[in-house]
Each structure stands twice: as structure tokens, then as C-alpha cells.
Amino acid sequence: MITEIPVGLSILSAGYCLHPELLTLRGGSLKPALFPAGYALIRHPQHGPILFDTGYSARFFQETAHMPASLYRRITPVVYTDEESAVSRLQTGGIAPEDVRYVVLSHFHADHIGGVRDFPQAKFIYLRKSYDAVSRLGPVRATKAGFLPGLLPDDFSIRSLPVDEYSAMRPLPEGLPFTEAYDLLGDGSLLAVEMSGHAAGMIGLFVSTGEHDYLLCADTVWSSRAFRENREPHPAAGLIMSSRAEYKQNFRRLRQIHERFPDIRIVPSHCREALALWGTGSVK
């Protein structure tokens, strides 16, 4: 195992958006493709249920009801039902919202933070510069950055645990393109690495179930085909990236992990293929 403590893992999604495949995969189709808003439920043996992102919630539609934020859902139309929300799926699986002690936020795009208000006792774990990159933006620039501040709870700062301020570093196995990771809980169970490029300060997460190792890579790519076939997104996608150079670097890292460690299950947040292969459809 890459990590030291095995956890339970359910890979889920809460809604999806439509977007031309071409922008996310060079040489792809101009037709709109379906991109699920993926998230993960991690069952830790000591800390209980932990979320990695949340997908969409009904608040997305409330926050995008008026200009300029309404441009967000016009450009990427969203399909969603309340039954798909993270809080609803967890409750169906016997997990109360108050039971979730931690929500790990890969980055602050609306399709990743849409449901955080539903977990009133959770502490939020993220890389400080990820929040700093969006927290002071005005309405127009925030919309361009994919950030809807109303999705965050009013006491977000009080409940925050930025990884670079609270977590120690732990070395990773030799051969991985990352030499060390943030040990989020201090026990080697959740190991986060910075994967900036798509968004500043975006993190991916290594977890192990005992049977398989996973890398939850957020939006480093939008589909497994990208790293498997070495197909970066269309150059136009760079207009919404925080750094094209960092994106290319982390794209290469993902390719290296795929080639050197083929048994690691790489899970992009918006990949239908990964969701079909390893997603559970319900809380397990």
C-alpha cells in the first residue's frame, strides 16, 4: 500500500455538466459530453466518514440565478437532482451530516464545493493558496475562476485546516513523480499532493483500501483517456487554467504514475469511465 492505514472508499457523483469534449481532450468531438461531478466518501477506521469534494447541490442554481454568475451555468449547463446530492446519498447510507468530521477540498470550483454547507460539523482541509487565489475576487473574476463564494458556509474560515499549516510531510514510495505528500491526519492514511495547473493549489489524494491504491486526481485531467492516450486538452482550455506550465508538469506526472505504477487506480473527478469501473453508485 502507498498509505499506511487502509480505508473504505466509495466513488460517487452529484450531478453532471455538459461541455464540448474537444476542450478537454485534444482531437475530441465538438459535441457536448457529459462530465459527472465526482466526489469520494472515505470511511476512516478512527475518524469516521470523510469527504473528498462534494459535487453539486441545489445551491448551485441559487448562486447562479443572476448575472454575472448565471454565465457559469449557461456555458456549462448542469443536470442535477436532490437525490444525487452528497448529503442525500450519505443519509440513505446511514450517515448523518453531523457525522462528517472532515471535508477535503481539492480546489474551489463550484462543482467541487457545491455541497459543503450541508455538513455543519466538518472541518475543511485544503491548500491555503487554493483559497487565497479566489477568496478576494470580485463577482466577474470569481465567475471566470469558477468560484461561487455563497456556496461556502459563513464560518468557513473558523472551520478551516489548511494542509500547509497543519499537516506534516511524509515521504512517498520511490519512483513516484512526487517525493513527499501532506499527511492530512498524521497517521499516513490520507496523503495529499499539490497538482496545480487547472486551479492554483489544487490537491490530489492517495488513499488505499487494502486491496487497491487510488489517486483521486481531481481535475488534473477530465478523463482517463487523456493520460492513457497522452492527449492534453485543447489550447483554448488554457484560458481558464491558473498556470499552463504547472498543468503540463502535473499532466506529465500523471502519465508517469500510469506507466510506472499501472495498478494504481487514477480517478479524475469528471471521468465517466472511472466512475463506471470503480464507482459504487451508493454509499458502501
From TrEMBL:
Domain Metallo-beta-lactamase: 36-270
SUPFAM superfamilies: Metallo-hydrolase/oxidoreductase
Co-factor(s): Zn(2+)
InterPro entries: MBL_superfamily_lactonases (IPR051013), Metallo-B-lactamas (IPR001279), RibonucZ/Hydroxyglut_hydro (IPR036866)
GO molecular function, one term: hydrolase activity
Catalysed reactions, semicolon-separated: 3',5'-cyclic UMP + H2O = UMP + H(+); 3',5'-cyclic CMP + H2O = CMP + H(+)
Keyword Translocase: no
Keyword terms, alphabetized: Hydrolase, Metal-binding, Zinc
One Pfam family recorded for the sequence: Lactamase_B
Signal sequence coordinates: none
Protein origin, superkingdom: Bacteria
Function text: Counteracts the endogenous Pycsar antiviral defense system. Phosphodiesterase that enables metal-dependent hydrolysis of host cyclic nucleotide Pycsar defense signals such as cCMP and cUMP.
Similarity-based family: Belongs to the metallo-beta-lactamase superfamily.
PANTHER family according to UniProt: 102 KBASES UNSTABLE REGION: FROM 1 TO 119443 (PTHR42978:SF2), QUORUM-QUENCHING LACTONASE YTNP-RELATED-RELATED (PTHR42978)
Stated name of the protein: Metal-dependent hydrolase, beta-lactamase superfamily II
Species of origin: Paenibacillus borealis
Higher taxonomy: Bacteria, Bacillati, Bacillota, Bacilli, Bacillales
